[in-house]
Amino acid sequence: MIRRYLNLVSLTKSQIIIFVSLNICGLLFFLLPHNIFWNMLDLKFSYNEEVLLKSFNTIGDEGRRVYYFSALILDTAYPLLYVSLFLGAYVKLFKNNSYICIFPIAAAIFDIMENIQISFHLSNFPSISVQNIFYTSTSTSLKWLTIGISIVILIYGIIQKQKSNN
Predict the structure, then answer these.
(1) How does pLDDT run across 35-61, given as a tens digit for each residue?
(2) Which residue range forms the structural domain that includes residue 11?
(3) pTM higher than 0.70, yes or no?
């Protein structure tokens, strides 16, 4: 079953559909009302209580409600799309090394953990725990770290493929 999924997401047609879907999803984030996009904790590498409070206060009550649902719905689709895009490219670039797939998969897991934690903060606001903010920020930072590693691996694979084609 996993092999069938990897074969499917590695097809050029699938890669194009996933890429377009990922960009549509990103556009939907950008179009969220109440300046949510510019105040999303998901986009920061690290944050603390002050940053979280500023973000949540800036978007207001209605913005927090929209952010809550977008974190659980829209931002759950996003990691599934980008992990599929990475895995599809990795299958093409690294046929004999499936271990590197752990990085985009880990990024998606951290991303989903982050979304759940942010939704928890939004639903309990203004009652928030500094310790929970630390856990959320750590999930966000680990997401960005594993995405960065995934991108470096992708660039390395593309360069190696270009060298072997010349």
Answers:
(1) 999 999 999 999 999 999 999 999 999
(2) 2-165
(3) yes
